[in-house]
Write a sequence for this structure.
């Protein structure tokens, strides 16, 4: 898992001191687009689909963009994501079936508006598009694996299970917050003092012990921190009082989400500053919440960061612990399962192409095989909820897609035009009268 591949040292005022992050998920989407354009152009020429060379990129762009939009909208509806976050697609958060359905409509619209006029056969083009589509899904799931999304159930005893960096992995929502199977960092704290350490965790292997007092975290002093939230006028008062006491004030957010982060590096000065603030804000609508640098960092963990590097105080001595990477329990790498399955499906489609009985049968085979795979793979997923008939949304759609594939096969066999020599009925010779 590698959510952020690297950072470009530009726009630091927007993205922080390290600059613009280059997300692995977005990079894989770009690679998928380039590879699918090349593959479709090459394969359509070999199969005689008559797809004009200058239209290949146009077709893929239309299907890719509208499919991506459909996948994002489906995800936002399923997981109740605010619409303001629609364009944060580089961070992950799409439902593939939504993309496939939207992509099919985009494909049909582009065909009837553009390609039909230049004599392109719909079903020949569909057969040519099926293997690139399978390859595109395979590459896209690599992006899911790097992003940590679309993960599976806990499988700690399986040798192929994947343990993701939990601090930045979406799986923490299930294994930590929902199921309580593990802690977020491998240990718990009470007022900056390590309370319990999980056996066999990365923190335990790094040498962290019960009773250690955290002195610094990732190079920052583990100072007392006061969070002040409320109306603008009390916040200004709080900032004034804190600065008079020698504390460091950071103003974050805006509007109703605005808050002050007041850092008190001297432990002896923490209680007096807190008392002064609470007294000054006693008759206002602002409130004071105290924490420390470690707890605040964990609650607002930077995307892409993985490791913790601690300085702790133990028996009067400062000891360096780390860096170490807290990880999830072993999870089924359902993203990798789908990548392997789609690569095998691509090879099957390429091998089946010469044996198809009619144009369109390769695409029908793709729809049927993907529906079966997705239904089975979905049983291993841990990030999807049951929506109807005891099944997840994708499982319900898989059944509909399988029925759709069966209907296509029936329609082609009943009314379609078979290819010469492919399944043409053989009639018995007429008996010659004696």
């Amino acid at each position: 898992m590698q959510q952020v591949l690297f950072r470009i040292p530009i726009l630091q005022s927007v993205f922080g001191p390290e600059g613009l992050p280059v997300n692995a998920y977005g990079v894989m989407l770009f690679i998928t687009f380039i590879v699918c354009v090349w593959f479709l152009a090459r394969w359509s020429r070999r199969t005689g689909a008559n797809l004009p060379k200058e239209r290949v990129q146009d077709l893929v762009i239309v299907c890719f963009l509208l499919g991506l939009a459909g996948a994002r909208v489906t995800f936002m509806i399923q997981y109740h994501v605010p619409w303001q976050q629609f364009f944060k697609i580089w961070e992950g958060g799409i439902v593939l079936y939504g993309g496939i359905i939207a992509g099919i409509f985009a494909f049909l619209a582009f065909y009837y508006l553009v390609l039909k006029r230049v004599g392109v056969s719909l079903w020949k083009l569909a057969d040519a598009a099926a293997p690139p589509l399978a390859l595109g899904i395979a590459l896209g799931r690599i992006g899911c694996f790097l992003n940590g999304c679309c993960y599976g159930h806990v499988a700690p005893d399986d040798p192929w299970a994947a343990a993701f960096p939990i601090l930045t992995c979406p799986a923490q929502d299930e294994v930590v917050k929902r199921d309580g199977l593990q802690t977020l960092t491998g240990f718990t704290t009470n007022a900056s003092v390590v309370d319990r350490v999980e056996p066999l965790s990365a923190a335990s292997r790094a040498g962290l012990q019960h009773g250690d007092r955290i002195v610094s975290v990732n190079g920052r002093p583990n100072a007392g921190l006061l969070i002040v939230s409320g109306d603008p006028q009390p916040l200004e008062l709080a900032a004034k009082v804190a600065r008079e006491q020698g504390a460091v004030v950071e103003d974050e957010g805006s509007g109703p989400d605005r808050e002050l982060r007041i850092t008190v590096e001297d432990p002896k000065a923490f209680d007096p500053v807190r008392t002064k603030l609470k007294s000054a804000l006693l008759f206002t609508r602002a409130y004071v919440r105290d924490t420390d640098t470690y707890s605040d960092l964990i609650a607002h963990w930077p995307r892409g960061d993985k490791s913790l590097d601690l300085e702790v105080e133990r028996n009067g001595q400062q000891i360096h612990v780390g860096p170490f990477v807290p990880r999830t329990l072993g999870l089924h790498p359902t993203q990798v399962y789908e990548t392997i399955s789609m690569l095998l499906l691509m090879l099957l489609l390429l091998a089946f192409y010469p044996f198809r009985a009619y144009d369109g049968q390769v695409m029908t085979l793709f729809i049927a095989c993907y529906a079966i795979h997705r239904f089975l793979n979905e049983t291993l997923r841990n990030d999807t909820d049951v929506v109807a008939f005891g099944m997840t949304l994708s499982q319900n759609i898989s059944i509909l897609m399988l029925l759709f594939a069966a209907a296509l096969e029936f329609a082609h066999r009943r009314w379609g035009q078979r290819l010469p020599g492919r399944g043409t009925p053989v009639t018995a010779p007429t008996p010659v009268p004696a």
Observations:
- Residues 105 and 144 are 24 Å apart (CA to CA).
